[in-house]
Structures are given as C-alpha cells and as structure tokens.
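pinging the channel bc i need a second pair of eyes. not urgent but kinda urgent?? the chain im working w is below, pasted from the shared doc
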Amino acid sequence: QVQLVESGGDLVEDGGSLRLSCAASGSILTIRDMRWYRQVPGKQRELVAEITTDGRTNYADSVKGRFTISRDNAKKTGYLQMNMLKPEDTAVYYCNADYTSSLPNIVGLLSSWGQGTQVTVSS
C-alpha cells in the first residue's frame, strides 16, 4: 500500500504565496517522476508541473515563472512553491508519483495519487 498525502493548501489573497507538500509512504522502493495537477469543478484535471528523478522540470505555460516544483528524495517528498498567485489558480491540487514497489511480487512502474488539497486565491 502506497500513500501520497498533500498538505499546504489554504486561502490566500491575490499575489500571495503557498507551498504545497506531497509526502509518500508505504511499500516504495524508488520514486520516479512526480507531478502536480489541479482541477476545478467541471473541468479536466490539468498538469501543472513535473519533476524527474534527476531534477529536470517541466511547467504549464500558465504557471511558468511563478511556480517551482522540487523534491527531497531522501524524505520521499515533493513540493510545489507557488508565488504571485492569481484567482485563476484556485483549484484542488493533486500530487501524482510513479514508483516501483518494495514488495517482492509487484514489478513494473506503478502510479499513485494523493487525495488533493484546496488552494483558493481571493481577488
């Protein structure tokens, strides 16, 4: 069993900052790519940022220059630093990670999702 637990979501004013965390636990051998998605009601889940095992990053155009994704492999934790927040950033933010299992009978690359954390930016 693998769990991803997001934290750090909150209500902030336009122009404010938040730092989201995603802590992984359970039967994990290695964590590969980590991603942050967001979703608003009635819309598809949108990829916000991703980071590879060796630290290469990719961002949605809408957050470039404002958001920074990072990770601490030793802590099995990913982060999303969000600066200059705008009302249109309001969404539930989800963490997603690809991983290999430490259980002997489970092979291949697996994927897990967190439960989401609400970010609300007031105008």
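so The mean pLDDT is 96. and The first strand starts at residue 2 and ends at 7. — does that match what u expected or am i reading it wrong
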